[in-house]
């Protein structure tokens, strides 16, 4: 176990170009499962590779257990990494793949054999030790790649999108295995993914990145429920949060907002501090919208036209159009709804679950 | 119908095989016949077979020496080419450094010069360095002429090895030097085998550089030895055929050995 501290870690590949990782500051605690989440090109893999020692650090500091490791080569950082492509040595058997790292570290032969056997047993690879990677299935290769990391018993595990090459069913089961592995080993793990489901289910905390910068760090549900800005709000959730343009119209007994052609009051915001005419973005998750009217101050009712219906079995996603609003408004409703494309319905927004973002996209704190 | 199609296919294959192997079989038959017998009938079977021609060529016509010279020069050149070529290809494919592509282009562009252009200057250089008429000199020339193609073939293969493998080896604690020997080279074995076969066959049969740069009897290679049976007014066709057979054997052996490795490597594949 180890504490990994990133302080303004920056990576610039080409001078004159934007940094791939821009002043990334983050502390990964002892035994924590931290997920770096973000879209392609957001700098999460670059950050991971800097931690691994596979990329040089342009500026900033990286410490493991308080020891500065900026200049320490990858092999001396006591870190193991699981690669997206598995990176198994194709000319070696499974056993040699598992033992390759230990042999270099002059671990006694008997100890190597013991560790390889133990790890192979744990991961269900005992019968495959003589096989070459090309004769293994995707799932088996993935387990060998995991085994290669575990067998070294490192301080820190790094995962670079390890599930992205697996089919959907295998991805779910392997995800579960990685979760179990973390609980069993209690090791510090840093996991890079662009898949929010992986991030939400595996991470104890999520670090969301965009454009090389850290946007928000926090426990998964915290980040989901209280996104720091419109990027996080739109990135997490499927379908993502509805982000609708709104204007402040007054301050009588709460924040009065005009959304399209409808005006309603957000009671939960308390005293308004925003002058009338301020342009805002109202964020509301699809599950906070019902397709039938609900009464009370906590709900806003809006007339809408259904433009798309996607029945998913356990639930239905509908896309609706509101008068005066360009974007479709998505709602997650019951399994067997009474709506069809072209029909009119009254959407009710749960205002207690609504979010407000200012013109720059930053969340406006709710007064409690 | 499938039987008829099979028969036609078989017939075509037989025709192609006899077309391809015909000259070889003809030369093999002539190698067991005397020149007088050959002049009498070009295509007759060797009856009686003069096996003694092989020992005569080997001992009396100095083929033993030519064979040893060829082996020494070609094996050394192929060995150097394989090691230096794969190291250079590994560097060019793996490391990002300034002028990487420029170096690659300069190396590869030397292929465009026909040997006739460079041979005079090479002759001068070898004379100046005291390497003219020496096996070391010819070996170095062979390395120089085949290196660009070797690097070209190997670089494209090394470039296809995913960089994750190198990263994984670095994480496993291996140095760049060890990664080359323990990861890159074994994975690139199919391509390395291809270059070994290619270089061996090309250099084993090489004539032009050898005839210009070697004149001393003790340093002649096999192609030069065979040429000795071609006179101004007459040719000892029988001995030429025997010499050819002696020259072909190592090529067949090298091909048989490395082509198996080549196929093994290809089927193992799986750099995923």
Helix/strand layout:
The complex is a heterodimer of chains A (368) and B (272).
Chain A: E1 4-11, E2 21-28, E3 33-37, H1 44-52, E4 59-64, E5 67-68, E6 79-82, H2 94-104, H3 109-123, H4 138-150, E7 156-160, H5 168-185, E8 188-193, H6 196-202, E9 205-210, E10 213-218, H7 220-225, H8 230-235, E11 242-250, E12 255-259, E13 262-266, E14 279-284, E15 289-290, E16 299-311, E17 316-322, E18 328-333, E19 344-350, E20 355-357
Parallel strand pairs in A: 3-8, 3-9, 6-7, 7-8
Antiparallel strand pairs in A: 1-2, 1-4, 4-5, 9-10, 11-12, 11-14, 12-13, 14-20, 15-19, 16-17, 16-19, 17-18
Helix pairs in contact in A: 2-3, 2-4, 3-4
Chain B: H1 2-30, H2 35-40, H3 52-60, H4 63-94, H5 100-109, H6 115-128, H7 135-158, H8 163-171, H9 176-187, H10 189-204, H11 208-213, H12 222-227, H13 237-268
Helix pairs in contact in B: 1-13, 4-7, 4-10, 5-7, 7-10, 8-9, 10-13
Number of domains of chain B: 1
Q: How would the global form of chain B be characterised?
A: globular
Radius of gyration of chain B: 23 Å
Classify the secondary structure makeup of chain B into a structural class: mainly alpha
Question: What is the distance, rounded to the nearest whole angstrom, between the alpha carbons of the first and last residues of chain B?
Answer: 43 Å
Overall strand count of chain B: 0
Q: Helical proportion of chain A?
A: 10-25%
Q: The biggest beta sheet of chain A, please?
A: 6 strands, mixed
Description:
Chain A starts with a strand and ends in an 11-residue tail after the last strand. In chain A, helix 2 runs parallel beside helix 4 and helix 3 (109-123) packs across helix 4 (138-150). Chain A has two domains: 4-231, 3-Layer(aba) Sandwich (Rossmann fold), CATH 3.40.50.300; 242-357, Beta Barrel (OB fold (Dihydrolipoamide Acetyltransferase, E2P)), CATH 2.40.50. Chain A is of the alpha+beta class. Helices cover 23% and strands 32% of the residues of chain A. The model of chain A has no long low-confidence stretch (mean pLDDT 90). Chain B is mainly α. Chain B has a single domain, classed as MetI-like fold (Orthogonal Bundle), CATH 1.10.3720. Chain B has 13 helices and no strands. The radius of gyration of chain B is 23 Å and the shape is globular. In chain B, 32% of the residues are buried. The interface between A and B is medium-sized, with 28 and 21 residues.
